[in-house]
């Protein structure tokens, strides 16, 4: 469903761009230049990128164009630009994880996902902004600058992968990678009208992903369409011997599920609507408009032949407290590596201070407030005498949440909910209230704690802002998420007569 | 649930005091102590600010204590894996100069670090 006047390459999805590249209708250099031009024009305001190297991107694009001209056998992703969240290490390319403690650091190696995308012939446009060390739900915790939402520059783009979400929604990249620890792919995707998928834990390599909470961190795709997300996921997924928690299973096949879903083939699919995520008695803090869009989407699925029922998962009520014990605990341990000795910032090494003093000063000046809060909280939760009551208890609650999923999946094939309780909020509104910020992850946390795949797909607007619909599935059944998301996307696109993000293009290009 | 004063929290170190009904509260001194353990030099302003914020967060996360977890095993990881091993084969790692190029300070092909032991030790 391409728009009639689609001369602006940056409004197209990656599948269409790939088709044009293969057909010789455009070149990688032309394409890359189009995104670089848009970044130059828009990113001073949007703040999606922390690092862009136009020269390197164009040189890389030219290489791919030459290879194509010489008749070299190229993969379907060859020549397509991509953006990476700054949490992925990239050889020789500055990587900060949104923190001052890594300012200027050029990693000596590539993350596995970065290497796989490079090998597939993609062109790295740049590294996207994020909450420092991925701790946050708004990208306001970036040590460098906040990122703005292209739907309304006075609002947050979600987080922590907010640079990636704004880059893709704003046409500053055709697609991007994010990471999701408690919702950091799905929630920003919901806030900006994108498709974002958190793969099954272990489905995508974590090698070279700067660790926040190792038992939860997962990399995944953020894209304009469900098909694009599936293609990007296939490109980065599959076993990696460099990540000991990587699942040793065949690489996922997802695009087939997207095509089936897009045809509306949902007869017999059993869909469970999670009561604890916005249902009766659990709707406090949820926008009425969000719940309404989600209810309509569930009806849409029923109309396509899905069997819908309500499912109760009582332990989900404790997902937020469990997560905010487990993630800070793991973070306090993971972030011990930033001590100013081997890489990154070092402060106060003037010959008069001890090693410990230099470490403490480095971490004081290198870390921002949210990182410090979580290190202190995690240190407390893991300390002798408190371990059983906090961290240990949270791990048991994690078991209860996983059991609720297991029981639910005895009766249904997928579980659905809003992706986030609200639409994007104004920048600054929750900055000094950690608990209000954490509530944005209410719906995404259960799948994170259980390690299950979950996708967010746009399901309409509320107050003129995008609403995300979340689909969760059993471990390794990522294809179900894509299938249902594709059905939702296709049905809504058909009803609207255009793609979801065309609404944003129309709005921003309309005369003031 | 009552919130103990910071002094009580700091002094109550006996695990026996921490049953299901966990109470929370972090004072300025507690935060300073935890920050020291984590090698984090916090400013006075941060100590004041964080104590209040973290007490509120701690009250919220203490909700996990409400769950009936008798006989429930802890879940450490989403993937049930143990002892992932590989052949013990020597493979090249990153060249030393490449690694040291990113170090804050290097000397004689090594990381240079501040003095670890005192003069007398």
Description:
The complex is a heterodimer of chains A (512) and B (121). With 512 residues, chain A is α/β, with parallel strands linked by helices. Chain A has helices spanning 14-22, 28-46, 54-69, 112-119, 162-169, 186-192, 226-236, 255-262, 288-303, 319-334, 355-366, 369-382, 388-411, 434-438, 445-450, 478-496, 502-509; strands at 49-52, 81-85, 123-128, 175-180, 195-198, 218-223, 270-274, 307-311, 414-418, 454-462, 465-472. Chain A contains 17 helices and eleven strands. Chain A has an eleven-stranded mixed β-sheet with strand order 1-3-2-4-6-5-10-11-9-7-8, with helices on both faces. In chain A, α4 (112-119) links the parallel β2 (81-85) and β3. The longest helix of chain A is centred in the last third of the chain and has 24 residues, at 388-411. Chain B has 121 residues and is mainly alpha-helical. Chain B has four helices and two strands; from the N terminus they run ααααββ. A two-stranded antiparallel ribbon of chain B has the order 1-2. The relative contact order of chain B is 0.09. The interface between A and B is large, with 78 and 61 residues. Chain A: This is Glutamyl-tRNA(Gln) amidotransferase subunit A.
């Amino acid at each position: 469903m391409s728009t009639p006047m689609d001369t602006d390459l940056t409004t197209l999805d990656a599948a269409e761009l790939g088709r044009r590249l293969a057909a010789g209708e455009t070149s990688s250099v032309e394409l890359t230049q189009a995104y670089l031009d848009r970044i130059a024009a828009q990113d001073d305001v949007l703040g999606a990128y922390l690092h862009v190297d136009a020269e390197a991107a164009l040189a890389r694009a030219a290489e791919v164009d030459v290879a194509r001209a010489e008749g070299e056998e190229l993969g379907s992703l060859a020549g397509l630009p991509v953006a990476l969240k700054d949490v992925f290490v990239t050889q020789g390319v500055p990587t900060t994880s949104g923190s001052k403690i890594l300012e200027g650091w050029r990693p000596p190696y590539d993350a596995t996902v970065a290497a796989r995308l490079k090998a597939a012939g993609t062109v790295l446009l740049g590294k996207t902004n994020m909450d420092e060390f991925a701790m946050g739900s708004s990208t306001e915790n970036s040590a460098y600058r906040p990122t703005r939402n292209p739907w309304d520059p006075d609002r947050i783009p979600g987080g922590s992968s907010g640079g990636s979400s704004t880059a893709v929604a704003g046409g500053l990249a055709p697609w991007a990678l994010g990471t999701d620890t408690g919702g950091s792919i799905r929630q920003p995707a919901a806030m900006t009208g994108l498709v974002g998928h958190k793969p099954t834990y272990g489905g995508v390599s974590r090698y070279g992903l700067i660790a926040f909470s190792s038992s939860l961190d997962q990399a995944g795709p953020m894209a304009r369409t469900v098909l694009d997300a599936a293609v990007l996921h296939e490109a980065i997924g599959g076993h990696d011997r460099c990540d000991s928690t990587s699942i040793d299973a065949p690489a996922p096949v997802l695009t087939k599920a997207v095509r089936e879903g897009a045809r509306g083939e949902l007869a017999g699919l059993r869909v469970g609507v999670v009561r604890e995520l916005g249902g009766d008695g659990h709707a406090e803090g949820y926008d009425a408009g969000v719940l309404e869009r989600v209810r309509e989407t569930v009806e849409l699925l029923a109309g396509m032949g899905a069997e819908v029922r309500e499912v109760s998962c009582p332990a989900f009520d404790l997902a937020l407290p469990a997560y905010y014990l487990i993630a800070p605990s793991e973070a306090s341990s993971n972030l011990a590596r930033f001590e100013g000795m081997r890489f990154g910032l070092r402060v106060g090494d003037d010959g008069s201070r001890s090693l410990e003093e230099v470490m403490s000063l480095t971490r004081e000046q290198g870390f921002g407030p949210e990182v410090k809060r979580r290190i202190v909280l995690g240190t407390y939760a893991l300390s002798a005498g408190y371990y059983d009551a906090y961290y240990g208890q949270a791990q048991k609650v994690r078991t209860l949440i996983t059991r609720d999923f297991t029981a639910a999946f005895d009766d249904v094939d997928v579980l659905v909910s809003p992706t986030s309780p609200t639409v994007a909020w104004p920048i600054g509104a929750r900055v000094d209230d950690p608990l209000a910020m954490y509530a944005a992850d209410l719906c995404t946390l259960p799948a994170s704690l259980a390690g299950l795949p979950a996708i967010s797909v746009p399901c309409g607007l509320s107050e003129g802002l995008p609403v995300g619909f979340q689909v969760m599935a059993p471990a390794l059944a990522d294809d179900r998420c894509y299938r249902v998301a594709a059905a939702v996307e296709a049905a809504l696109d058909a009803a609207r007569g255009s793609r979801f993000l065309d609404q944003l293009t129309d709005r921003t290009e309309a005369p003031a | 649930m009552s919130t103990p004063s910071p002094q009580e929290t700091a002094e109550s170190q006996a695990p026996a005091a921490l049953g299901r009904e966990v109470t929370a509260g972090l004072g300025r001194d507690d935060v300073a102590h935890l920050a020291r353990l984590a090698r984090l030099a916090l400013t006075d302003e941060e100590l004041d600010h964080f104590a209040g914020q973290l007490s509120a967060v701690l009250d919220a996360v203490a909700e996990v204590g409400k769950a009936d977890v008798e006989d429930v095993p802890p879940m450490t990881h989403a993937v049930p894996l143990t002892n992932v091993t590989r052949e013990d084969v020597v493979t090249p790692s990153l060249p030393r100069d490449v690694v040291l190029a990113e170090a804050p300070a290097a000397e004689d092909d090594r990381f240079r670090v501040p003095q670890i032991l005192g003069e007398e030790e």
